[in-house]
Amino acid sequence: MSADLSLISLLINASPLVQLVMLLLLVVSIMAWTIIFNKSKSLKQARQELESFEDRFWSGGDLSRLYEQSSNHAEARGLERIFKAGFKEFIKLRQQGGPDKMAMVEGAQRIMRVNLNREADNLEGSLQFLATVGSTSPYIGLFGTVWGIMNAFRALGNVQQATLAMVAPGIAEALIATAMGLFAAIPAVIAYNRFRSDVERLVSHYDSFVDEFTSILQRQAHVPAGEDT
């Protein structure tokens, strides 16, 4: 490859608009990769916290003691936060001595659903950006390509005899924009699909826990206060 067609030379000699498109795609790609690494780490931590809390919850220990432990854990997240919010509401309604036992259970369930939705929103954070990058980056790159090719052919109109050597640099720099668009889009799409699947599995676990814990609270509602197990 000649020096005129080297990658650095093509980038430097590209038209200002094509350079702007390339810079935009580079920034978007860096942001997408940053989100990918951070989201991968946070979802892995969420899975570990889920497994850890489920082990403690289903170990057969005292729910009140587990609630005290969760209350002392200020940074409780995920399933632990859902449990803590639901059990706290259940205890509060029970201490008020309401005659309708199902109202206590339904109140706790509503609180757990609210917290479940919040946890789902937290897990889904930044995924929309990846989806946007995956769907728009190829078109942004294509815009830079079309503009670069258009400029290359416009330059041919100013010469009497056109050669491939004259048009090649302009077309090559234009195609780099498409390549950069795909470079930004492909990882974003792959990561979005993977993370979306991971989030759906976690939320499904949370939802199942809410139903299972609601059944436990229904039994607890018929046990006199002070005799909880």
Automatic annotation (TrEMBL):
It holds the Pfam family MotA_ExbB. Keywords: Cell cycle, Cell division, Cell inner membrane, Cell membrane, Membrane, Transmembrane, Transmembrane helix. Residues 78-207 form the MotA/TolQ/ExbB proton channel domain. One of its GO terms (biological process) is cell division. One of its GO terms (cellular component) is plasma membrane. The Tol-Pal system is composed of five core proteins: the inner membrane proteins TolA, TolQ and TolR, the periplasmic protein TolB and the outer membrane protein Pal. They form a network linking the inner and outer membranes and the peptidoglycan layer. Part of the Tol-Pal system, which plays a role in outer membrane invagination during cell division and is important for maintaining outer membrane integrity. PANTHER family: PROTEIN TOLQ, TOL-PAL SYSTEM PROTEIN TOLQ. This is Tol-Pal system protein TolQ.
